[in-house]
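input
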Amino acid sequence: MSDPTPDHNPTTEGPAADDAEGGARPRPIRGIWRQPLAVVGIALIVTWVVLALLAGFIAPYDPLSQELPRFLEPSAEHLFGTDGLGRDVLSRVLHGARISLPMAFLLVTAAGTIGSVLGAIAGYFGGWVDELIMRLVDLFFAFPTIILAMAIAAALGPDLRNAVLAIVVVSWPTYARVVRGLVLTHRDSDYVRATRLLGASSRRTLVRDVMPNVVGPVLVLATLELGNAVLLLAGLSFLGLGTRPPSPEWGAIVAEGSRTFDRWWIGTFPGLAILSVVMAFNFLGDTLRDALDPRTARAVRGRE
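output
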């Protein structure tokens, strides 16, 4: 009588196991919680989201009020001190999270959607459509991102919406190039050919069969780009091309602090807020990348 216990198959262990279909994919995602960097990143992100949502309740003062003494150093009453106009820096940093975080999510969503759609069209259909889209992408990559964003924001005028639009314009080509490459790897796969033979339209094949295999890498890219978005938005505001005073955006607060170097607390605390958010998204993005693409992670570790 044969043993009902399945025989051990050594081919499903090691690197090849990452390519196996079935229940192997959810396991790396669950393993994220065992990664210290991912836990730190998630904790920081959740903390800042909660602080942004509750800023109106936990901020000790009105972020725009100028009734406090000027240039107070950090103390028990004013944990982050006050600025040159008598505004509480802690309150401004907390309310600044309400601007920086939602705008970062908005522009990454917009840039990711535009870039993914154009990249998928270019990669799947090819031909002159691919040539046109990718030459446009190359045109954007010919200029440094921050310089191009500054030029667009300056042309549109100093405003938060214009700054977000400028960042979206310079960010979507990254998604387009990544998605195009991923779609090209799946376009001629056996399962895609089988779907075509069954009479599925090109649109259905692209949307229902190819794009689900692209979601993971795009999610990793979007997570990493969230940190860059916060940094770019703060940079434009620092240069006077983003939010207008007296809006408590983090980059604008850092700009105010840069004018009074002897009052270190004005620019230090919003700068630390930017640093913590950028690091949090980078920690989470790196861990997601290693979990969703274990072969790349092993290759990187092998070179270290």
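quick obs: The chain is about 70% helix and 0% strand.
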